[in-house]
Structure formats: C-alpha cells, structure tokens
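Recap from last week: sequence in, structure out.
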Amino acid sequence: MKQLVTWIVLANSREVSLAENRGPGKGVHLVEGQTWQAEPVELPRDEAGVGHSIAGPGKSAVEQKDPQHKAEMGLAKEVCDALAKAFTAKKFDRLILVAGPKMLGLLRSKIDDSLVPAIAGEIAKDLSAQPMDALERQIGEVIAV
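Predicted structure tokens:
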C-alpha cells in the first residue's frame, strides 16, 4: 500500500516553512530546504497619506500604500506556486494549511485550483513558532498523526 504523504504549511506574515507527515504513527517533521521569506518591507519615509501641493503651501491627501500587505501577498503567491509544482510532481497527497487568519486568507486567495482537492484541512492559528509536539497535537485534530 502506498504511503500517504501530507504536507503541512506553517505560515506567518514574514516566513513560511513546510512540515510533513508520512502516515499514522510517523509524527510530523520539518522538511529541510522548504522555507520561504517575505521580501523586506521598506516603509514610506514621508508623513502617511499626505503630499505637498506644488501649487502653494497646502497639503493634499494621497492614496495609502501598504508595503507590508504587498510583501505578504508576494510570499503567499510564491508558496502557492511552489506547492502547485510539487503537487503536480506527486511529492505529496494531502495538504494542511496552518496560518493566522490574515495569512490563511492570503494563501486561500493565491492557491491554484488544482490544489483545492488536496486540502485536507486548515487551522487558523499561527503555530509557526510552536515546538513539534504542540504542532502534532493541533494537526492530530485534522488527520491521524
């Protein structure tokens, strides 16, 4: 019988790592070399939302930019693209997304349609800094670890 491989995406707004489970009783282990980092964020240096008028001494409102959100969107897209390639190459059978609510929403918005049937569950908590035994308890609520 073929062993069922489950990849677990552990994400926060700055980095994403990948863990794996190879069936009941095998536990959860981090996958070496499978981490992604968000691009460094360069914050605006001027007063937020205000621009100086060239017509005189007044100020005017300008559109707000959110460089942090842009970096998070880029990270989510990069991760989802890599997951789609790995799923096509049959490197895993199931996927569990573990991220805080905001990052989970970004991952959902960027996930390829071909990956949707592989999603075995989602946990809307940032568990990226948790020790493996705590992570296994949380994942155990979704699949047999």
